[in-house]
């Protein structure tokens, strides 16, 4: 058995502490969850440095995160995938409870993960050959702008000299066009090129898509349906982009891309199973993972179908087989009406790390509005800055929005940090509407105060019936 390939990636420098520091830039609090995922990612890198016989025996430490909605469960997993560059998919476990869907089709999450890996590897390979593809695209574009001239194939001695002169003039014309294309002089000129596109899924399979078909059937349809060529009239700049993509595609080694994508999917893939509490069966016996009537049967069926994938199995895809033994699964759920213990014992055992995320309060909301680089307040400042309106926030205004969000969560459904988005949008409702008119009147600066925030949101929060619809 060959030694697992060493990944030349930023993973070498991604220590658990650095991972947590990076997550802290976007997610407030929840240190236990951050530490758990950071250690899991580092352990994967450590495993890949071991010999094949030892590495094969070390399973991934799957994680289950328990906490109310809006506290950062999904964001932690999403930011983690972005940070590591690993293939990542997010699926809702509840989608597999639909009648006629659960069963073999839970494997579609692995197929989706492989598609993500293929996109990542293809993008990397394309970047590496685009420098070679660009000159080829320019030559094709010159052929469009300066089509070859036809002529007799029988040449006399006198015509050979004339032909040589014609070729010299043509090469001179091509050189001038090449200079003009490089300088961008012709970018707005329109040309007609041939664009190749893949045919869409046949109408009879439109409701399911290629990923849900049997892999052999999907490959058969791809072979039966030829690529479609269509003439399009576009600008030179757009034509250059399209032709560069076509030439890049010709230079790609598809077999190499597929094998590397499968390897990354198996060794670095992350599947985020959201709403796993929706397939738990509360009230049942501990050995069976729930009851046995009505929707409980469907939920148990989904758990049984998930079990072999999480344990480690081989999934057939139209690109080849994928082993799930070392894919990292991160499950999450609110578990309001169920507990982790309501899952099948076998499935529970495949998630050895359990982390509880704490609800968010007023102080957390203040930090969320001020600390992250993508804070809602900064987003609003950037958007209104486009209009020429500079927005500032008094500290009391930030505290007022945090207080209103905390009160709304306490009196209504607790949706965590998502409530802040509703509050902020309500505060800026009038400002967003008449921002351009304010600037036209010379009002180029705006400072938000606590009184303004209360005036915009306070009355709505005080009306219980109205707040349920607005907030």
Characterization of the model:
This protein is of the alpha/beta class and 471 residues long. The chain has 3 domains: 10-117 and 257-356, 3-Layer(aba) Sandwich (Rossmann fold), CATH 3.40.50; 121-147 and 160-256, no CATH class; 362-460, Helicase, Ruva Protein, domain 3. It has helices spanning 16-24, 31-48, 52-55, 73-84, 108-145, 157-183, 215-224, 236-251, 254-268, 295-311, 345-349, 362-370, 376-386, 395-411, 418-427, 429-440, 450-462, 464-470, and strands spanning 63-66, 88-92, 190-197, 228-235, 270-274, 314-317, 320-323, 328-333, 353-356, 390-393, 445-448. It has a 5-stranded parallel beta sheet with strand order 2-5-8-1-9, sandwiched between helices. Strands 3-4 form a two-stranded antiparallel sheet. β6 (314-317) and β7 (320-323) form a beta hairpin. The longest helix is centred in the N-terminal third of the chain and has 38 residues, at 108-145. The model is unreliable at 1-9, 151-160 and 203-207 (pLDDT under 50).
Compact overview of the structure:
The protein has helices at 16-24, 31-48, 52-55, 73-84, 108-145, 157-183, 215-224, 236-251, 254-268, 295-311, 345-349, 362-370, 376-386, 395-411, 418-427, 429-440, 450-462, 464-470; strands spanning 63-66, 88-92, 190-197, 228-235, 270-274, 314-317, 320-323, 328-333, 353-356, 390-393, 445-448. It has 471 residues and is α/β, with parallel strands linked by helices.
Mean pLDDT: 80
Helix content: 40-55%
What portion of residues belong to β-strands? 5-15%
User: What is the H level of CATH, i.e. the homologous superfamily of the largest domain?
Assistant: P-loop containing nucleotide triphosphate hydrolases
